[in-house]
Amino acid sequence: MIELRKIGRTYRRPSGEAVEALCDVSLNIRRGEFLAIAGSSGSGKTTLMNILGLLDSPDEGSYRLDGQDVAGIGTKQQARMRNRRIGFVFQSFHLLPRTSALENVEVPLLYSGRSSIRGLGRKALEAVQLGDRIHHRPSELSGGQQQRVAIARALVNEPDLLLADEPTGNLDRRSALDVMAIFQALNRAGRTIVVVTHDGEIAAHCNRIARMEGGRIVSDEPVAQPKNALEAVQ
Amino acid sequence: MRAARVIRHSLSMMGRYKLRTAFMMVGSIVGVAALTLVISGGQAAERKTLQTVSRMFGDSAIMIVDGGGHFMGGPRGTGTRLKIDDIDAIATELPGVESWDPQQGLGTGSVRRGDQAVDARVTGESERSEQVWNRRASRGEYFDAAAVKAADRVAVIGETVARKLFPDEDPLGGEIQIGSVPFRVIGVLEAWGTDPHGMDRDDEVIVPITTLMRRVTNVDTIASARLVIRDAKTADRMRPEIRSILRQRHGLAAGEPDDFTIITPDQVQAMVGQIRKVLFLYLPMVAGISLLVGAMVSAILMLVSVHERTGEIGLKRALGAGAGDIGLQFLIETAATTLAGGAIGIALGYAGARAAASHMHLGKVEFLTAVLLGVTASTVVGLLAGLIPAMRAARLHPIDALR
């Protein structure tokens, strides 16, 4: 599904100094995989995630999504692909304040061009067990619930790729396991999921772990026995 | 479909940030209200001023005023040299003069009837004032040449004076006193209403100028005279002729300044032009500046809003919003706030203009003008205030915005 070939990304600090965030990164992600990108902060994992999510473009190398080289497509087309094919989950949830869970979930639908969006938001919230909270505002929800709203939002357009950047970073252990349990269920149902995390415990729930250091992938191995988050919760 | 959803979303977001929305509206409320007030009020003022000016000066009248100096501003000496004979001489020597009327006034004086007293403007004029000023008696009659010649103690009074001194009676034939001099009321002047300065033109008493000069003011000079000329185009040519007659009669040596002032229709036109300039250039300019300031306030608030909502913009970009969707959202927000502010501004400006017009007796204010102006003005504000922030929001890079 995803083919990265020798990706390089260099930022320029305001001082003019160049920072090599990614260097010679090659990565294949097959449909239905549940991959963790692990590494300490500054290892380049968020940059990699931004490139995977079409929020950033590499300076070197090529990125093929379903066989299509994304270097050639314009920003408008990129926005459309983000909307239809990629769901994002962020560390700090990024929910709109003063806005109900349902309206938050419906934001991607605004840009989807679908002829009818009725019921989709509610369905997505029910899928994350928040069917009884659809009119609550973020400030009325716990951190775990907020992240579940964000997951519902990521899923509402039924994308086949889910990208999560430190999705459990702001959550307690219990809520973190809830989130991982949802991800595992989604993955079992066939969704491709990439989770960026610095937490080995969280990475251990995935099927494969790619470790990064200094902008390079230093190891990339399948997980023999992924932990089961649902069991841990129960 | 998509644009409609984005617009609906933007509007509902605005409802959630009422304070921010309200502050952004203030800019356009103030600007639009100021412009509407000034223009529609100015329109009413212009109409009224032109009406008054044309009644006072007409198209074909020359005013001669005692005392030198400049018309419209500048010091004017207090001359006491202008006499009825001077005007008589002008009328005799210049065939272009059709009719003329000298004036001497008491200013505002006390007019009494029995133990009732009112303050009214008391003016002495000739019997020709009826034609020269085009103001007739609506009841009774004007005094005639014989009355002026004999300095009869007769008076024509305005409606206001009539109402105050003769509340329930017919004023014709009644007796009033100006100073200690008794006058018999022979006519009531047609009503003229109130002029733009708030002066009640019916609060007036007109008596033969001879009677006023001899019995009340005790002077032999006049304050001013109005000459009606046969052909308006000759007015400017008559000016030097009138001047030389008066200078000669007053015995002014070369180099000595005039002790009188001649006001011709051209000068009146210039004065009207100046009034128009104030009403339609300077005042709107001031209002335009306040509109501009209002637009800038809205624009700055919008820029601040874009800045503090960087995260929201980044998130929406990540979720698939194109640059155009973001630009549209901010444009809609500004357009909605400035138009709503504009609507309030129109209402306030119109109400203000109405209040001012009724206070200054300007007559009615055109509502349509006010609305058209307000809508135009708030659109201008919206465009000025909305475009730059919308463009800036649209140009934000998603990952910079998400950070």
Average per-residue pLDDT of chain A, rounded, comes to 93
Count of helical stretches of chain B? 13
Strand residue percentage of chain A: 25-35%
Write down the overall mean pLDDT of chain B: 85
Oligomer: heterodimer
Quickly name the level 1 CATH class of chain A. Alpha Beta
Please write the string of helix (H) and strand (E) elements of chain A: EEEHEEHEHHHEHEHEEH
Helix content of chain B: 55-70%
Care to count the β-strands of chain A?
10
Q: Whole-Å distance between the termini of chain A?
A: 34 Å
If you compute it from the alpha carbons, what radius of gyration of chain B comes out, rounded to the nearest whole angstrom?
32 Å
What does this protein look like?
The complex is a heterodimer of chains A (234) and B (403). Chain A has 234 residues and is of the alpha/beta class. Chain A is built from 8 helices and 10 strands. In chain A, strand 4 and strand 5 form a beta hairpin. Chain A is globular and about 50 Å long. The model of chain A has no long low-confidence stretch (mean pLDDT 93). Chain B has 403 residues and is of the alpha+beta class. In chain B, a hairpin with a 2-residue loop joins strand 6 and strand 7 (181-189). In chain B, helix 2 packs parallel to helix 11 (323-359). The radius of gyration of chain B is 32 Å and the shape is elongated. The A-B interface holds A 50, 53, 55-56, 75-76, 79-80, 82-84, 88, 90, 94, 96, 98-99, 103, 107-113, 115, 117, 153, 157 and B 1-2, 5-6, 9, 12-13, 16-17, 311-312, 314-323, 325, 398-399, 402.
Helix and strand arrangement:
The complex is a heterodimer of chains A (234) and B (403).
Chain A: E1 2-12, E2 18-29, E3 34-38, H1 45-52, E4 60-65, E5 68-69, H2 75-85, E6 86-89, H3 101-110, H4 120-127, H5 143-155, E7 161-165, H6 173-188, E8 192-197, H7 200-203, E9 208-213, E10 216-222, H8 229-233
Parallel strand pairs in A: 3-8, 3-9, 6-7, 7-8
Antiparallel strand pairs in A: 1-2, 1-4, 4-5, 9-10
Helix pairs in contact in A: 3-4, 3-5, 4-5, 5-6
Chain B: H1 2-16, H2 18-57, E1 61-66, H3 84-93, E2 97-113, E3 116-125, H4 129-132, E4 137-140, H5 145-149, E5 154-157, H6 159-165, E6 175-178, E7 181-189, E8 204-208, H7 209-217, E9 224-229, H8 235-249, E10 260-263, H9 265-308, H10 310-318, H11 323-359, H12 367-395, H13 398-402
